[in-house]
Write a structure and sequence with these properties.
With about 400 residues, this protein is mainly alpha-helical. The protein has 15 helices and no strands. Helix 1 packs parallel to helix 3, helix 1 runs antiparallel to helix 4 and helix 9 packs parallel to helix 14.
């Protein structure tokens, strides 16, 4: 009996869950763990120096501004390099050292320098990390890869405040020592990028001016950035939900219980964000990313409408925080996955840099405008402003081609 030749076995498709995807996810977890510890204790540390609240606003504003511009510059320059990974390692190291350096501060301006330096490193590494992640996955698995990274980043955001609380008790509110200990997870983040992430050498794109590089980005991506920018201009920081919950629940339960409920609701928000990020990524690999992102933006609009029209009692606040955690998971995962799909791999650095900068500017504007409207008129008008922009962003993403 003879057998027909079966030919060579078909090559197996590359696995999306590889050492690079896992390494980038771990780096996000460790780095977020590090700077969330610092963020949790920094206001109290500044208070021990006698610094006014204006210092905290200045520190965060300068740091966020530097980070936003660094993201765009990093994306532009790293596309011209054969290897992006060394820039990512340097960015994580600068963030780790700058964050831990806050523990050595004796004046508020020392904190400003360290935090700004740390956020500069964070800005430099962000588009590079996303480009490395996209290069390690295939277009068919972008959703799962970015969803896993967002999930692990959020786990770090949950672990950070919990660790800070434990250290405050264990070290008897020695803020300097707590801040210095952030160096441990910060260096672990740099280490996993250096030793776990693999990068194949790539052909660098020809050097052109910044404006010319922007023009090479597809028209569909530029329309996508417009939708992201309009949505982001209304997407206020969700710490404002903590303030709203505290204000609404205090007359019902007293200040202490209201604060406890508000923090618990925010923990629920973060747990749902972490859990749903990967689910959103899994869905993105099976359905139209544009429709899914538009659905996430629409869910944000539903959340905003509830904030405007629904009575903010405890059960309704549970619904609001739940929807907020889910829509942020969809928003952040799908924005990255869709950007990777719309932009050619050779220009991923510039594309992710532009996306991160638009998001950074949107975060800055939204929190300021919502805060001013809340203070001047009331929360209903502030959240109505956000809801209108959420609906606009959803409509623009739905119409993307």
């Amino acid at each position: 009996m003879t057998f027909a030749s079966q030919g060579p076995a078909p090559s197996k498709a590359p696995r999306w869950l590889n050492r690079t995807v896992v390494g980038i996810g771990l780096a996000s977890l460790f780095s977020d763990w590090s700077h969330e510890i610092a963020t949790t204790v920094m206001p109290a540390f500044l208070a021990t120096m006698g610094a006014a609240a204006a210092w905290l606003g200045l520190i965060e504003g300068v740091s966020d501004g530097l980070s936003s511009f660094a993201k765009m510059g990093s994306g532009y320059f790293t596309d011209q390099m054969r290897r992006r990974k060394p820039i990512a390692v340097i960015g994580y190291l600068v963030t780790a050292i700058g964050t831990a350096g806050i523990g050595l501060a004796t004046n508020a301006w020392h904190v400003l320098i360290c935090r700004a330096g740390a956020w500069l490193g964070r800005g430099v590494r962000t588009p590079v990390r996303k480009a490395l992640l996209a290069a390690a996955a295939t277009p068919e698995t972008y959703g799962r890869a970015f969803g896993l990274e967002r999930m692990m980043d959020t786990l770090g955001a949950i672990a950070g405040p919990a660790t800070a609380t434990a250290l405050l008790v264990a070290l008897r509110h020695n803020y300097a020592h707590i801040l210095l200990l952030t160096l441990v997870p910060g260096l672990l983040a740099a280490g996993v990028i250096a030793f776990l992430v693999k990068e194949s050498e790539r052909a660098s794109v020809p050097h052109v001016s910044f404006g010319e590089r922007l023009n090479t980005l597809p028209a569909s991506f530029r329309r996508f950035l417009l939708a992201v920018g309009l949505f982001g201009a209304g997407d206020f920081a969700h710490t404002m939900l903590i303030l709203l919950a505290t204000q609404r629940l205090t007359p019902l339960y007293g200040a202490a219980r209201a604060a406890t409920y508000a923090v618990s609701l925010y923990m629920l928000h973060n747990v749902l964000y972490a859990g749903f990020a990967f689910i959103a990524g899994w869905m993105a690999d099976r359905f139209d990313k544009r429709r899914l992102l538009a659905g996430g933006y629409a869910l944000a609009a539903v959340t905003g409408a509830l904030l405007v029209f629904a009575p903010m009692n405890l059960p309704m606040l549970v619904v609001v925080f739940t929807l907020a955690g889910v829509y942020v998971a969809i928003e952040e995962t799908l924005e990255d996955a869709l950007a990777a799909e719309l932009v050619h791999r050779d220009h991923h650095g510039m594309g992710f840099g532009a996306l991160a900068t638009v998001n950074g500017v949107g975060d800055f504007l939204s929190s300021i405008v919502v805060g001013l409207l809340w203070t001047a008129v009331g929360p209903s008008l502030a959240f109505a402003y956000s809801t209108a922009l959420f609906i606009t962003g959803a409509a623009l993403v739905w119409r993307l081609k």
